[in-house]
Amino acid sequence: HNKYTMKFTSIATALLAGSTSAFVATKSPSSSSTALQANIAVFGASGLTAQECVYQALKDGDSVFGLTRNPANVVVPKGSGGADADKPIVDDKLTVIGGDVTNAADVAKVFENDIDGVIVALGGKTSDVGDSMLTDGTNNIISAMKSKGVKRMAVVTSIGAGDSKDQAPFAFKILMMTVMKKIFNDKNNQEKAVEESGLEYCIVRPGGLTVDAPTGVINVIDGEAGSIPRADVAQFCLEAVKDAEFPYIGKAPCISSVGGTSWVKDRSASARGQA
Question: What is the pLDDT of residues 99-152, one digit of tens each?
């Protein structure tokens, strides 16, 4: 994947007591956004975070292949979309497939295309989608990726999943143990499937999700989570599947816009190779 020219530079700056280092993503001077074009699969494409992934990837010049039970709900997101929010996304590089991620045949339709990276942003109430949709669907995606030789995936779960239970705020922990118990059981099993897949994965555990405009600052945190715009989560996921040297492959970072280790993308003109 030498077509991806993003590089990370470690900055030895202590942002917080006990923090590690900050990562700054900068494009090499020779590159432009067109040099980073990729074919990205997005599963759960009508979800609020997935909409951001779809929209931002298209803005970057990527081709997007989305699977969702509700194709009509793939619309411009509130966070990045500004005044265009909630309008249909019209782009000849977008292919939306109506289907169910728990149906392997539907998942296979996405991989009839030459996919470079996969974002899994599945969601929904267990009362609507069942108690094991996240795990079953993710296992179908993993199998399809292996059969096609696709290696890179970002999977959005949640703060509190897996070994991050203690990073959830107290009130959220109560929900995890009560009304959200089934969904967290599914998320934990989903993470386990990803960790055992042998693929180049990044499990992304966001804090409290908002539909605010993107901040461009993503903190990888060791302590209790704050909130984060879905637009920033999407940026992190896209970097995870497009950057050959992404620093959190094989890891499950907790991210929020408050506290922790800063992960900043340089969006300046000079970083884009412009005067």
Answer: 999 999 999 999 999 999 999 999 988 888 999 999 999 999 999 999 999 999
How far, rounded to the nearest angstrom, does the alpha carbon of residue 179 sit from its chain's CA centroid? Answer: 25
Residue 49's identity, in one-letter code, is T
Q: Output the pTM of the full model.
A: 0.84
Q: Are 117 and 110 in contact (CB under 8 A)?
A: no
How far apart CA 214 and CA 229 sit, in angstroms, is 6
Q: Which residue has the tokens 């959005």?
A: 156
Residue pair 118/39 in contact (Cβ under 8 Å)? The answer is no
Residue closest to 52 by CA, chosen among 145, 156, 133, 200: 156
Residues 254 and 252: their CA atoms lie apart, in Å, by: 7
- With vertex at residue 26, the alpha carbon angle to CA 24 and CA 27, rounded to the nearest 5 degrees, is 160
How many Å apart are CA 69 and CA 26, to the nearest integer? 36
Closest CA to 238 of 62, 27, 9: 62
Cα 11 to Cα 20: distance, rounded to the nearest angstrom: 9
Q: How many CB atoms lie within 10 A of CB 39?
A: 17
Q: Could you give the residue ranges of the DSSP H alpha helices within 60-110?
A: 78-81, 104-110
The tens digit of pLDDT for each residue in 212-253 reads 999 988 999 888 888 999 999 999 999 999 999 999 999 999
